[in-house]
Amino acid sequence: MSQGEVVVRFNSxxxxxxxxxxxxxxxNFSVRRGSKITIMGQNGAGKSTIFKLITKTISPEDGEIxxxxxxxxxxxxxxxxxxxxxxxxxxxxEKCFSEKVYDIDPRIDAVxxxxxxxxxxxxxxxxxxxxxxxxxxxxxxxxxxxxxLLLDEPTNNLDTAGIEHLTDFIKSYKKTCLVISHDAEFLxxxxxxxLYLDVFTRKVEQYAGNYFDLLREISARIEKxxxxxxxxxxxxxxxxxxxNFFANKGGQMRLVAKKMRERAEILEEEKVDVRREDKTIxxxxxPAQDDLVGDIITISSFTIINQKTHKPVDRxxxxxxxxxxxxxxxxxxxxxxxxxxxxxxxxxxxxxxxKEGVKIGYYRQDFSTLNFEDTVYESLVSSxxxxxxxxxxSTAAGxxxxxxxxxxxxxxxxxxxxxxxxxxxxxLERPGLLILDEPTNHINFRHIPAIAKALDAYEGAMxxxxxxxxxxxxxxxxxxxDLAK
Length: 485
Description:
Layout: E1 6-16, E2 22-32, E3 36-41, H1 47-54, E4 62-67, E5 73-76, H2 89-94, H3 104-114, H4 130-142, E6 148-152, H5 160-172, E7 176-180, H6 184-188, E8 193-198, E9 203-208, H7 211-247, H8 253-270, E10 297-305, E11 312-321, E12 326-330, H9 337-346, E13 352-354, E14 360-363, H10 376-382, H11 389-398, H12 403-406, H13 415-429, E15 433-437, H14 448-457, E16 461-465, H15 469-473, E17 479-482
Parallel strand pairs: 3-7, 3-8, 5-6, 6-7, 12-16, 12-17, 14-15, 15-16
Antiparallel strand pairs: 1-2, 1-4, 8-9, 10-11, 10-13
């Protein structure tokens, strides 16, 4: 198949996870060979579902998906499944193939070099940081050398250097690449076109150009639709006024009045449904624990992982956080940021003293603080000391958690929806110390300004890890601890 020919086509594809949960309805789009296509849409709109349909992990309820016989597909998943965390690097890559690969070691070295990660093949996957695991996921797709490469939120957990490396790779990639991401700046650096999932119509809209081109086209369409409807509304009202006038005259004039009403009804049918924009979460605050006084947390030393020897190294520090003070933790992937946050949250970090009685609100990048077997409702109830039904429901609604979602298990939610549940829990928990590990991962970028504003206004002590400079710059930061210095 030559460059530019269609490599995958969806024809009237519909899919639902249950009778009451339709995701896609008669979706049509095509992707050309060698193109770089972005898939965007609201959390839970069905982006990952499209990837599962392409990889044949699931099958459509109706419609057809066309790919040439022999077309190979590989996906870089969002997270490493829990049952693969105990594997060695070699075992992890061996699982990418249905048959034994005898030259696996040099192939592993080649793809690890592409993602800028160097590690012994007998190292356990769980020992890697979140950012390093993101690189392993990408490498696990690349090692298969597919005709179609699917990348699901590939920038999550990557530091700035990692994102730059990934961007350069995608730009030079010769085969077809489909990317799900909420990082508009990253996407706009390489995108040929956008597949946009409309969460209201459950359709896919196909656009040429990048995300900013999409926004301009959608805005122009909404303006045109509103203008047409306003013109029709004016004409409808004029016909109704005339109908009323002639109806009062009696006789033959009543027939004229009837025609005027019929004309008004025809015009009503010509009005178009104006495209609805994705909803954004409501502005919110994370209430701080009452009676916070004095030093909330003191950090006199911490442990990092040496980037060359991969061995722990102790460092000195002199950081004290009181009420309304926010600390930014910086450093490259693999240096130990998430490990430090977890040890602080568990109260076992050497050189760290936490004020007695301080409640910790912990947002983990892998959502492991959530019980995946709980329903959303059960998860929210468990976050409050004294559950309050109205408070739970109103908080959930602010984070776009619908009544149907409340009865869904956490493990069945999209990664973005899990993130919104995690933020709703923080609101209900009222922590005194907020610990946030990459809180923008998986989150629709439309929601990020509201999250940044809430963190900026948080009145307890806060420790934040984020590689998204634009997000960090909109939050009040009082102290910065760079683990690499």
